[in-house]
Structure formats: C-alpha cells, structure tokens
C-alpha cells in the first residue's frame, strides 16, 4: 500500500516542476532585453514582488516553522535564484538608469522586512502552529496577489474581444500549479496556509482558461458592415422608418 508520505512527495515534485515553468515564463522577455541590450519600458516590480514572496515561503517551509515541507523550500529557493537573476539582468541592461537604484532599495527593504519577520517568529512564537500561522498570513497575502494579478488581463480581453495579451500556457500553468499545491495541502499534513492561496490560484487560473476558451474558440466576432451605395440607401430608409415609428 502506498503511504500518504510518498503520495505527498510525488505531488510536491509535480508541483515543483509546474512552478518552475511559472518562474521561467518571463524568459522570452529577458531574451528580448539581451538582444536589444536595453530594458526598454519593461518594469521590474513583478520580479521584486516575487523575490519577497519566495523568501517568505522558503522561511515558511523550514523545519523550525512548518515541519515536513521541504518541497516548499526547494521550489521557492529555486524561484528566488531565478528572480534575482532576472533583476541582475535588468540592472545590467538598464543603460539609462530607469530603475537600477529602485531595485537596490526595494531589495534592501525586503531583506530588512524578512529579518523583522524572522526575529518576531523566533522570539515571540514557540510552537510550530503559531509560527506557521504568523508567517503563513504574509505568505498567503503575497501569493494571492501573485495569482490574482493576471485577472487584470481578463478585463482587457473582455474589452478587446481578443486573447492576444493572455498567454494560454501561463493561464494553464497557473491553474495546474494552484491545483497541485492545493492537493499537496490536503495530504498527510493538512496545511491551510497552502490551501487558501493556492485554492484561489486554481480558481483564478480556471477563470482565465474559461475566458480564453470562449474568446479564442467559441466567440465569433460580428461581421463588419461595409456601406455601399445601395446599402447606404437602404440604411437611410431604415432610419426614416425608425424615426416615423417613434413619433
């Protein structure tokens, strides 16, 4: 009989693989930066925010906070390295100093913030339950923001009736990532912190997939009506009939 611990490990490894795909999704952007030797108008904010998110989850998964969560540490440790690499790339090719100083200041602030969180956790809370709850609140807040941010694109898709700015692969990866880590939260050791943010992530990804499916494969844009001499006469007649009917 397969043990719950083995199943949890397998699900966690699958979650690690999917999460790596999410972390690597901005690679085309940085390939473009490398080719043009300039950051252009790309922003560094998402990567700075993800750095803090990864640091929080690495600390959360340590045995002193949440035992038996080593796979949470491995994936977020890898994500932290990837995001810092992105930021190093950004700073190197930031020829006109559009955000180099800000990146340094934000990272310094995040390190100070993490030191405060670590000190409070270790000095004020002395059980795993209390420590994981305290750190988990911050993890969930940043994780939910990360998962829900793509929903801003849904509004644009609705307005333009086009999925040009909603990559299918990213939406699918977000859905599968949220689903996988939600399942991980239920196995062997129930982890409500993982469940809350990743459950919302799975829901967010599902909404994106539904919207993508509708506008990419189901929705049919109305035909453009081109006025010709005969059609313009017919249109004028229809307008007159409509005006008379309203009197």
Structure summarized in a few sentences:
The chain is an all-alpha fold.
Write up what this structure looks like.
The chain is mainly alpha-helical. It has one domain. About 4% of the residues have low confidence. It is built from 10 helices and no strands. Helices cover 77% and strands 0% of the residues.
> How many helices in DSSP terms?
10
| Overall spatial form | globular
Distance between the termini: 81 Å
Amount of beta strand: under 5%
Count of folded domains: 1
Mean residue pLDDT? 81
The ordered string of helix (H) and strand (E) elements is HHHHHHHHHH
Report the strand count.
Answer: 0
- Residue runs with pLDDT of under 50 for 5 or more positions: 230-238
Please identify the structural class as seen in this structure: mainly alpha
Oligomerization state: single chain
């Amino acid at each position: 009989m397969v043990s719950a611990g083995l199943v949890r490990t397998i699900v966690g490894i699958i979650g690690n693989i999917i999460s790596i795909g999410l972390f690597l999704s901005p690679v085309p952007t940085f390939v473009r930066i490398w080719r043009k030797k300039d950051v252009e108008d790309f922003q560094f904010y998402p990567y700075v925010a993800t750095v803090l998110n990864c640091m929080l989850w690495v600390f959360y998964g340590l045995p002193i906070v949440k035992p038996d969560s080593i796979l949470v540490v491995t994936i977020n440790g890898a994500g932290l390295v990837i995001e810092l690499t992105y930021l190093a790339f950004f700073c190197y090719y930031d020829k006109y100093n559009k955000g180099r100083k800000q990146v340094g200041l934000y990272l310094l602030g995040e390190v100070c913030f993490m030191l405060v969180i670590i000190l409070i956790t270790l000095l004020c809370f002395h059980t795993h339950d209390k420590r994981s709850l305290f750190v988990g609140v911050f993890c969930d807040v940043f994780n939910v923001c990360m998962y829900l941010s793509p929903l801003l694109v849904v509004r644009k898709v609705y307005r333009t009736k086009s999925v040009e700015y909603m990559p299918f692969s990213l939406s699918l990866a977000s859905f599968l990532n949220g689903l996988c880590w939600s399942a991980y939260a239920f196995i062997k050791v129930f982890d409500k912190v993982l469940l809350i943010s990743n459950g919302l992530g799975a829901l967010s990804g599902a909404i994106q997939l539904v919207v993508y499916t509708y506008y990419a494969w189901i929705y049919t844009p109305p035909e453009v009506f081109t006025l010709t001499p005969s059609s313009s006469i017919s249109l004028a007649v229809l307008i007159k009939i409509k005006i008379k009917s309203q009197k």
